Amino acid sequence: MPPSAGRDPRLSGLYLLTDPRLGDALLSTVRAAIDGGVRVLQYRDKSADAERRLAEALALRSITADAGVLFLINDDVALAQAVGADGVHLGRSDGSLAAARAVLGAQAVIGMSCYNEWSRAEAAVHAGANYLAFGAFFPSQIKPEAVQAEPELLRRARAAWDLPLCAIGGITPDNGAVLRAAGADLLAVISAVLFAKNVTQAARAFAQLW
């Protein structure tokens, strides 16, 4: 099995996932969030509109490149390759890490959703994941049915592996401090930033946790 990918210093800070409900406000909202301190952006859109998804991903690639923000694509390895993204994030049904690595190359950042499953995290480490994502830690508007994870899982993973750890699920600046203390390098957020009254201020409130 390949060894774990080791620690990537870029994988630390506020990790923002996009939401298709933003519509035409996607780019301006992302810019405002980056102004507040977003360090990693994941383009997440499960729709079948390939033309729109390509156009949006290309625009986001340009924005993130200019800002020095790591840019990942959710699930779609082909789209990540087409737009020159920094990598992909893979969930339970999104294909294997090895297959994504074969397409995107050794330098690609590939993260894996581990939910609350230690065995899945072990498999991701051995497959060469660049970071591990756990959650949901708190009730989430986006995925109310998501499995629940406990902060102890982060502590256990931090003791076991020298890999960046990402926490997701209902995170706010207040409860995010608990997850940071438990070992989370990245806090993945959607609604708490994207749909805030002041997107830049909302992102800055998270960024101050680092």
Structural write-up:
By secondary structure, the chain is of the alpha/beta class. The protein has one domain (13-207): Aldolase class I (TIM Barrel), CATH 3.20.20.70. Helix content is 41%, strand content 19%. The protein has helices spanning 26-35, 50-67, 77-83, 97-104, 118-127, 151-160, 173-182, 191-194, 199-207, and strands spanning 13-17, 38-43, 70-74, 87-90, 109-115, 131-135, 165-168, 186-189. It has an eight-stranded parallel β-barrel, surrounded by eight helices. Helix 2 crosses helix 3. It is globular and about 40 Å long. The chain starts with 12 loop residues before the first strand and ends with a helix. The mean pLDDT is 94.
Topology:
Blueprint: E1 13-17, H1 26-35, E2 38-43, H2 50-67, E3 70-74, H3 77-83, E4 87-90, H4 97-104, E5 109-115, H5 118-127, E6 131-135, H6 151-160, E7 165-168, H7 173-182, E8 186-189, H8 191-194, H9 199-207
Parallel strand pairs: 1-2, 1-8, 2-3, 3-4, 4-5, 5-6, 6-7, 7-8
Helix pairs in contact: 1-2, 1-9, 2-3
